[in-house]
Amino acid sequence: MQVAAAPAGAHGYGVTRTTALLLCASLLGCFGRNPAGEFKLDAPSVENADFGNALFQTVGIALKPGNKLDLVDNGRVFDAAIEEIVKARRSIHIDSFIWSEGKVSDRLIDAIGRRTRAGVQCRVIVDAVGSPNFGGLEKRLQGIGCEVHRFRPIPGQDDVARDHRKLILVDGRVGITGGFGIDDKWDGDGKSDEPPEWRDSNVRVVGPAVADMQQAFSENWQEATGALLPADAFPRAADSGPTWAAFIPSSENSIATRNDRLTQLLIATAKKRIWIANAYFVPSAPIMTLLTRKAREGVDVRVLAAGDKTDTKPYLPTQRSRMDELAQSGVRTFEYEPTMMHGKTMVVDDSIVLVGSCNLEPLSLNKLDDGALVAVDARLAREASRRFLDDLARSTERAPASRKTAGR
After folding, report:
1. How much is the average pLDDT of 343-350?
2. Cβ-Cβ contacts under 8 Å for 50 (sequence gap 6 or more)
3. Residues of the chain with pLDDT > 90: what percent?
4. 156, 253, 257, 271: most buried, per Cβ within 10 A?
5. Half-sphere exposure of residue 319, counting CA atoms within 13 Å on the CB side?
6. What is the rounded distance in angstroms from the CA atom of residue 101 to the CA atom of residue 121?
């Protein structure tokens, strides 16, 4: 099924996210019924299991010790990226769904150019649908010595199964991932809509988990080019910090993507709390069932999603229907007020944190190449929790009338 590229709009999309979502709905019956063979995790089997072992069994990737993680939310992600790029010695790898002209792009290209002139290799993958007006930027990047490829160019490729990963990797030593795109609307502090400064969550990783991130990049690089990365893209990782972590890539699957499996595992694991921030909250029936079950068991379940300032208004009624259904079971649901909330995070109990590009809606749960960093770190969980609560203070609660106030 092919889709003609639409003109780029205010949000930098060609074939818009709305169009893709509606296509997915028609292809998979996302809003009306459950796909045949839909994956359903048996919650009791994992509630008392060792999390690391359960994660490995569920997605086939092991937590690795020795990582150092820092949250680099909103425009801070570009400062962090440039801090690392200017130190590059061998390679700079970037995988992005959206890359648009603007000040953010200029800053990154300037930093990359300083390193490519010193002999550093630069490889860039940009999704052909997410960035339809990339031609001028492609030429600029090629002009400073980058090898650049558009992922699954159209026509002739699946226009729904896109590369939605967000990765910046330097020397195979440090990686940045999250919800960001390379566009000026991701700059700022995530608290203003004039001009738009989207609220987003990202993480910088140093340590063994970076190899998982590099492998996800190499997977897409192979599809785009047919080539392997050089061996030095996977250096032996030094012990860089106290955190156990893993990057979990997800790709199209007609029954159960890793995003779907991982989401259900994290919810099933929770004994005290699960706090979810997700831009596009249209979860599947199994995820809804798990969230309802946990809330009824007394787990503190809260969901924060985009509100009226979303970039995808047509499915707000479906999102709100899901949220109101959950509220009847004791889940506290919120919509972010100041601007577009684009983050994809979870905090589970006192130590498990997820930060990535994975949305809880049909495209990401079924079709997209996505990824998420999962960490076990009490310090990081405290910091992620503080930021989540700060966001709730700027949000409106969708809940029974007796609890219709935003807050903590």
Report:
1. 98
2. none
3. 84
4. 257
5. 25
6. 22
Across 28-120, where does the E strand assignment appear? Answer: 64-71, 91-96
One-letter amino acid at 175 equals G
Q: Tell me if 268 sits within 8 A of 290, measured CB to CB.
A: yes
Q: From the CB of residue 289, how many other CB atoms can be counted at a distance below 10 Å?
A: 16
- Residue 135 burial class via C-beta count within 10 angstroms: exposed 0-12, middle 13-18, buried 19 and up: exposed
Q: Contact 127/97 with Cβ under 8 angstroms?
A: yes
Alpha helices in 166-309 (DSSP H): 210-225, 258-269, 285-296
Task: State the DSSP H helix or E strand holding residue 333, giving kind and residue range, or none if neither.
Answer: strand 332-336
Kindly report, residue by residue over 362-384, the tens digit of the pLDDT: 999 999 999 999 999 999 999 99
| Peptide bond preceding 195 in cis form (omega within 30 of 0) | yes
CA–CA separation, 95 vs 107, rounded Å?
17
What pTM did the predictor assign?
0.91
Q: Give the relative orientation of helices 258-269 and 285-296 as an angle to the nearest 10 degrees.
A: 10
- 211 close to 234: Cβ distance less than 8 angstroms: yes
CA distance 73 to 200: 6
- The one-letter code for the residue type at 320 is R
CA distance linking residue 154 with residue 129, whole number of Å? 8
Task: Take residue 176 and report the two structure tokens written for it.
Answer: 């940045």
Q: Which residues, other chains included, contact 403 with Cβ-Cβ below 8 Å and sequence gap of 6+?
A: 332, 397
CA distance 74 to 96: 16
Helix, strand or coil, per DSSP, at residue 306: strand
Strands 64-71 and 243-250: antiparallel
β partners of residue 147: 123
Cα 286-290-294 angle, rounded to 5 deg: 170
* CB of 218 closer than 8 Å to CB of 227: no
Integer Cα distance of 407 and 140 in angstroms? 46
Alpha-carbon dihedral sign for residues 388, 362, 179, 107: negative
Residue among 305, 293, 287, 277 nearest 330 (CA) = 293
| CA separation for the pair 319, 276 (Å, rounded) | 14
Domains of the chain: 17-403 (3.30.870.10)
Q: What is the sign, positive or negative, of the torsion defined by CA atoms of 84, 129, 185, 312?
A: negative
End-to-end CA distance of the chain: 46
pLDDT in tens, 282-337: 999 999 999 999 999 999 999 999 999 999 998 899 999 999 999 999 999 999 99
